[in-house]
C-alpha cells in the first residue's frame, strides 16, 4: 500500500467516525490559531500568490464567467435597496479618495 493509499484509507475511516460539525469546529480552531500567529501582510501574501497562480491558469473568459455567476447569485439574494446602499457607500468612498488621495507604493 502506498503512502497516499494509506492516507486515503485513514481519512475515510476518520470521516465515518465524525460528523460535519466536528470538522467545522476543528477548522475554526485551526483558523483561529493561524490568525493568532500571522498578521495582515501574511494573508495579503498568500492571497496574492493564489491570485497569481489562478491568473496563470485561466483566461479572461474564466473571470467573465465567474463574475457573471457571482452577480447572478447576488441578484437572487438581495433587493434593490441592497444595491442602492452599496452604491451610496462606494460613492462616499470615491469622494473621500478624490479629496484625500493616498500615494501608492507603486509610484
From TrEMBL:
Residues 1-58, 88-107 are annotated as: Disordered. Pfam families: KGG. It comes from the Bacteria. Signal peptide: none annotated. InterPro entries: Stress-induced_KGG_rpt (IPR019626), Stress/Virulence-Domain (IPR052590). Residues 96-107 have a biased composition (Polar residues). PANTHER family: CONIDIATION-SPECIFIC PROTEIN 10 (EUROFUNG), PTHR36569. This is Glucose starvation-inducible protein B. It comes from Pradoshia eiseniae.
Amino acid at each position: 500500500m502506498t503512502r497516499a493509499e494509506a492516507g486515503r484509507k485513514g481519512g475515510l475511516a476518520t470521516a465515518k467516525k465524525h460528523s460535519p460539525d466536528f470538522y467545522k469546529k476543528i477548522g475554526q480552531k485551526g483558523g483561529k490559531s493561524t490568525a493568532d500567529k500571522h498578521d495582515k501582510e501574511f494573508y495579503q501574501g498568500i492571497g496574492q500568490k493564489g491570485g497569481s497562480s489562478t491568473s496563470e491558469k485561466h483566461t479572461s473568459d474564466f473571470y467573465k464567467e465567474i463574475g457573471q455567476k457571482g452577480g447572478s447569485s447576488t441578484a437572487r439574494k438581495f433587493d434593490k435597496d441592497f444595491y442602492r446602499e452599496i452604491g451610496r457607500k462606494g460613492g462616499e468612498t470615491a469622494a473621500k479618495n478624490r479629496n484625500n488621495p493616498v500615494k501608492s507604493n507603486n509610484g
